[in-house]
Amino acid sequence: MTVRFRAFALDSERRQLRRGDADVHLTPKAFDLLAVLVAEAPRVVHKKELHERLWPDSFVAEATLVGLVKELRRALDDRDPAAPLIRTAHGVGYAFAGAIDVNASDLPPGVSRWLVVGRRRIPLADGNHVIGRDPAVAIHLDSSGVSRRHACIVVRGDSVALEDLGSKNGTRLNDRAIAGRVELHDGDQIQLGPAVVVYRSSTSGSSTETLAPATGR
């Protein structure tokens, strides 16, 4: 699946970053860092998590991660502090903050509702869809701060609703804490602890969608 932002196209499977028709060179670890940040956008990925994902079997100094971020910013021409692509959450970690266009054509034909979880597209059929850190739930989020059974999306005919399941860190819809069951609409951003997912709907499915950067986080 190809992800596009500004003039760039990122293909993680082919390990290729292009700007227009030209390849953009990144060292292997810098490419891995960009892929992680884009996949997890717009949430802030903690430095500890980045170290575990980029260097799972070794210890590296924090300066190594800082150097990769600098390499990405140079390669992406990320110079505008008012509208950065790679955002620094000081003392915490980093986030990809640009608007993302993703190809959702891998959805089965006829799917009219789905959840965007990083680069995954999860169809929502009629029924209950529990979201949480428990691997056994319908929508698994492997992120600290997400409860094992955090929230649930309930699909009943034309009605789609979200409810919190008594999670430790709460559930927010478009940056507002929810209480009880609330209706979902196309483009709604759902925040579960540190994780952010997006609800999408269409009468005929969708081939392309744009995920705007999160604000106020």
Could you name the key traits of this structure?
217 residues; alpha+beta; 6-stranded antiparallel β-sheet; 3 helices; globular
Topology:
Blueprint lengths: L1 E4 L2 E4 L4 E4 L2 E2 L4 H13 L4 E2 H8 L7 H14 L10 E4 L3 E4 L3 E4 L9 E5 L2 E4 L3 E6 L6 E2 L10 E6 L2 E6 L6 E3 L2 E2 L3 E3 L5 E4 L2 E7 L6 E4 L6
Parallel strand pairs: 11-12
Antiparallel strand pairs: 1-2, 1-8, 2-3, 3-4, 5-7, 6-7, 8-20, 9-10, 9-19, 11-13, 13-14, 14-17, 15-16, 15-18, 18-19
Helix pairs in contact: 1-3
Structure description:
There is one protein chain. By secondary structure, the chain is α+β, with helices and mostly antiparallel strands. It has three helices and 20 strands. It has helices at 28-40, 47-54, 62-75; strands spanning 2-5, 8-11, 16-19, 22-23, 45-46, 86-89, 93-96, 100-103, 113-117, 120-123, 127-132, 139-140, 151-156, 159-164, 171-173, 176-177, 181-183, 189-192, 195-201, 208-211. The strands form four sheets. It has a six-stranded antiparallel β-sheet with strand order 4-3-2-1-8-20, covered by helices on one side. The radius of gyration is 18 Å and the shape is globular.
